[in-house]
User: Which sequence fits this backbone?
């Protein structure tokens, strides 16, 4: 009898998974996550977010083939991150205003998955005093980050920013590297799957301590199982177990 219950349970779960995979070929999946900016050696600027993504190719074997994210899933205004390490002076903090634009990421999964997802806003490095009361700021626009391009501004501080698209692979700014990834490897776009993207940000100035500031953007997405699906699965399992308990044992 236990063998029969186990077999029935396995068949039920298998059928549910197959149905879910078939329906998730092109599906709208809710997600939670975080957008993070790692500016040089200083603490990360982390912006939590959530939304609904259109995931294509999330069912069956292999990675998602495309992932469309809406704009403003991650946004913050004048977020201050203190820098308290005395060795970091004259840097006393970071301040960021950032919002993601809409974009579509595509590819074969693993290191081949990525694309343009632009950011708007800027971050500033607060010098000689805490944000937002710094005597001097180095303001870095984010307009080229996450999509590629070149920004240069000449003035009291000459500033150059070079951006690039997002990827789940490995990127480098000089000798400093950062890595993305997907999980699980077989089906990253399914509910409970996750995608970690990274983009390099090359920042340079004519100020000696900041001649080159290797920086990176990180975008972590976790797809949330739909409550209704979990309820149906739980109800099915409970029914199978009740059926097994109600039958006489041989």
Assistant:
């Amino acid at each position: 009898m236990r063998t029969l219950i186990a077999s029935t349970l396995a068949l039920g779960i298998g059928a549910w998974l197959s149905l879910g995979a078939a329906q998730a070929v092109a599906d709208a999946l809710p997600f939670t996550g975080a957008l993070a900016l790692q500016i040089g050696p200083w603490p990360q600027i982390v912006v939590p977010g959530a939304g609904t993504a259109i995931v294509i190719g999330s069912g069956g074997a292999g990675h998602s083939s495309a992932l469309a994210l809406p704009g403003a899933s991650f946004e913050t205004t004048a977020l201050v991150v203190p820098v308290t390490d005395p060795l970091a002076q004259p840097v006393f903090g970071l301040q960021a205003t950032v919002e993601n634009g809409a974009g579509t990421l595509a590819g074969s999964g693993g290191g081949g998955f990525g694309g343009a997802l632009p950011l708007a806003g800027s971050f500033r490095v607060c010098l000689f005093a805490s944000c937002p009361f710094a005597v001097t700021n180095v303001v870095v626009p984010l307009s080229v980050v996450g999509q590629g391009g070149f920004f240069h501004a000449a003035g009291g501080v000459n500033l150059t920013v070079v951006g690039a698209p997002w990827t789940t692979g490995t990127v480098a700014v000089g000798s400093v590297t950062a890595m993305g990834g997907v999980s699980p490897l077989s089906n990253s776009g399914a509910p409970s799957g996750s995608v970690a993207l990274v983009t390099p940000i090359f920042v340079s100035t004519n100020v000696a301590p900041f001649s080159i500031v290797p920086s990176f953007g990180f975008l972590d997405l976790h797809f949330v199982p739909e409550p209704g699906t979990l309820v149906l699965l739980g109800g099915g399992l409970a029914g199978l177990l009740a059926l097994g308990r109600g039958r006489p044992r041989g």
